Amino acid sequence: MTQEAKVLTGIGLATLVIVVAAAFFVGGKTTPEKTKNVSSDKAKLLIRENSHLEGTKGAKVTIVEFGDFQCPACGSAYPTVAKIVQDYKGKVTFVFRQYPLPVHQNAKIAALAAEAAGGQDKFFEMYAQLYENQKAWSESKKPVDEYFVKYAKEIGLDVNQFKKDVEQKKYQKNIDQDMNDAGAIGVSATPTFYINGEEIVGGLPYDEFKKKIDAALKSS
Question: Please, which of 4, 28, 74, 110 could form a disulfide with 67 given CB 3.0 to 4.6 Å?
Answer without folding.
Answer: 74
